[in-house]
User: Fold this.
Amino acid sequence: MSPSTLAPRSLPVWRPRAPLGPWRARWRQWRALLRFLHQSGELSRRLLLAAPLLAVGFAIWAFGGVYGWAYGCAYLLIYAALAVWSVEWWRGRLRAHWKWIYLPMFGFGSFALAQMALGWSAVFPATVTAVVHLGAAGALFLLVTQCYRGDRDVKSLTTAFSFCTGALALLAILQLLTSSRDLYWTFTYQFASPAGSFVNRNHFAGCMEMLLPISCVAAYQRRRLSWLRFLPWAAVPALGIAAVLLAASRGGAVALSTEALAAILILLYLERKRRQAPLAQRLRRRPMLLIGVLTTGLVLLVGTETLQSRLHNLDRSGLDAATRAQLDLSSLAMFRAHPLGGWGLGTWADVYPAFARFNDGNVYLFAHNDYLQWLAETGIVGVLLAGAFWGIWMLAFLDRMRRWPPGLVHSHGGAPPAIPLAVAAALGCAGLLVHSMVDFNLHIPANLLLFFTLAALALPPERDPGA
Assistant:
């Protein structure tokens, strides 16, 4: 054997590495998490869920999205997210889930395209604009129903909604208390009655009607925190209610009352199902009383004189009841002239002068009743398709509630987080539907997008394979 074979081999020497700094270690953890999310498709799903929600938030803060540049940017983000989702689904990274509620959606899309292509619309450009609006809302609904995963996303969603609610309510209160007629104390618009980031206080109230139930859920989910940490979450619904009352929107006040009554009925139903809860669980409900105390205090602080004045002077503040009745009769006359397919989406303002029953020198762009305007523009076909959509939505929502045992509310873990969010989303939709009887909130892009976001969150979420 040669001497070189007998020579000892050099052993590897262990040299200790310098300890990683806290920021570097945290960055490595985040990078590993992002790599895992990307490989599993979870990162794409979360980003595609966040994109339409960012579009809704942008539209809310950009004057309600009523200007072309505002809703154009929001819609561009939604359509881009839909294109990315389609590519990810085509590559097999994301799974598509069929829902029966898509059937009336696609049916109405085909009907709207037929109005344009076959000359059924009285004003072609107006119908094109309306199709763009409703198409963006439909794309958002599709994205949220495909990407929302229930309990996994609830905490981040309720946190984002709560922050938006609190900031918007605080902005409106400061603006109204300083008697500012300018949006953000900078922008002045003719015929504006601003509140918060909205040009019209009634549309601000419509937005808050949808946001407030979810902010209550965010506070409810944190009810076990200490009083000091729970206080900011409890203050958000109180600020929102005070802002709506200070904005003096009669429709908003009625819609909020409807939501409150529905919430009380739901709570009474759950209490009837309750077994005798332990004392410790009953005591944990005490922080929820803080919301009521803060709301009462803020309402007393900001006052309700303006709202009371508008309620006592229905014929001299804003659009009076007689004018609304005349507009309703004109909308019905428009429907009788074209009962089957209507005059075309978005054409009410152009067709209305031929059916006007009075002339007060004002220009009316909307019927101030979303239901009658929909009837005049889409006819029986549009009403049947809308009825099919909401009928399927209601059946899916009620089936989800039936599958959830109410006794879980009083168990140690409480209800699954997605259930209170679904109930709050349904309450928000109900509030806006009530308000839409006397206003045109569904023609405000921010409120339209937020409305269909809540409608999607109220439906049963899909589960990934193996989840």
Q: What stands out?
A: DSSP finds 18 helices and no strands in the chain.
